[in-house]
TrEMBL record:
It is found in: Membrane. NCBIfam families: CoxB. It comes from Natronolimnobius baerhuensis. This is Cytochrome c oxidase subunit II. Keywords: Copper, Electron transport, Membrane, Metal-binding, Respiratory chain, Transmembrane, Transmembrane helix, Transport.
């Protein structure tokens, strides 16, 4: 099914109104000039010619047929134009009739004075990135005051009202860079409340998604060297039970994703919070537990160390600090005695 962009629809409406307006203008001006010429004042006009006089209402020649015909044609044209325009605007309002899986849904949240985006797959990029030739549905809201989200070049605008969602859609037919702006006066920073909108080709968009869904985990030992000894790393989405796909995985030092202390995970296609547990094979090393906010390309670093050794090292550092303080105090005392 061919999906028309909002730009195409509004251009069609504009061109139709322009053509009809030009046609009506030509007819009216031509008929006016014709009558001005026909009824011009000349000496050759017969005295008995039936001419209209000032203040006299026209009777409508031929029993009013011309008047009836002109009003009838005008009514047909106007009603047809209204019905056609209404249908076009319904398409703009309701969007294309297509499978929801072929479209992208994004929540846009306004706040003073910036825009936040959350994709249906959990991504939260810094600016809006969408593929060309793909319908994009926006659910626009606000967390503080009234805003209005709009992309002028794509003919899309929706109110951002706290506690409510205003749904709209758009589709860009070719890659390019656009600008989203706030169209509701919302405070001293209103003029700077704009954001980048990047439209990519489908292939470039897929590559961008791959980059966003990349989780890099660096493991190091107490000496800050890459940790390459035995371990087991478990990763699972905190709401894994609510998804059809299994958003969990287990990795070891023998996994293909692991190399020289770095684990690069690219298999997940759902953003959100992930629970992480790292269990070293060496029982003297302390396990690591954490929750990762994975809503864009993320890099985390963890140190696997012996807690007892770390505690002893801290005690040694404290003792050294105390010795240094005592030495400083003795030096100050000796200097005072010398004075």
């Amino acid at each position: 099914m061919e999906v028309r962009t909002r730009i195409d629809v509004f251009e069609d409406i504009f061109l139709v109104f322009l053509a009809l307006g030009a046609l009506v203008g030509i007819v009216v001006v031509s008929y006016t000039l014709y009558n001005a010429y026909k009824y011009r004042d000349t000496d050759e006009r017969p005295d008995d010619e039936d001419l209209p006089t000032v203040g006299e209402l026209p009777t409508g020649g031929k029993g009013g047929k011309k008047l009836f015909l002109s009003f009838g044609l005008s009514a047909i044209i106007v009603i047809s134009l209204v019905v056609w325009t209404y249908g076009m605007l319904l398409y703009v309002e309701d969007g294309p009739d297509m499978d929801p899986e072929d479209a992208i849904e994004i929540e846009v949240e306004g706040q003073a004075f910036s825009w936040n985006y959350e994709y249906e797959n959990g991504l939260e990029p810094g600016h809006l990135v969408v593929p060309a030739d793909t319908p994009v549905w926006l659910e626009v809201t606000s967390i503080d005051v009234w805003h209005s989200y709009g992309i002028t070049d794509l003919r899309v605008k929706a109110d951002a009202i706290p506690g409510e969602y205003d749904e709209t859609w758009f589709m860009a037919d070719e890659p390019g860079d656009y600008r989203a702006e706030c169209f509701e006066l919302c405070g001293f920073g209103h003029s700077g409340m704009d954001d980048d909108v990047e439209v990519m080709s489908q292939d470039s968009y897929e590559e961008w998604l791959d980059e966003q869904f990349t989780l890099t985990i660096d493991l190091e030992d107490a000496a800050e060297e890459p940790f390459t000894d035995g371990f087991e790393l478990e990763l699972a989405h905190v709401e894994n039970d609510e998804f059809e796909d299994d958003l969990s995985g287990t990795y070891t030092e023998e996994s293909d994703e692991f190399e020289n202390g770095t684990l690069e995970i690219t298999e997940f296609r759902q953003g959100g919070d992930y629970d992480l547990v790292i269990t070293p094979e060496d029982g003297d090393l302390e396990p690591v537990e954490d929750t990762i906010d994975f809503t864009s390309a993320t890099s985390e670093s963890y140190t696997l160390e012996d807690p007892d050794a770390a505690e002893e090292e801290e005690d040694d550092e404290e003792e050294n600090d105390e010795d240094d303080e005592e030495t400083d105090d003795e030096s100050d005392t000796e200097e005072g005695d010398d004075e």
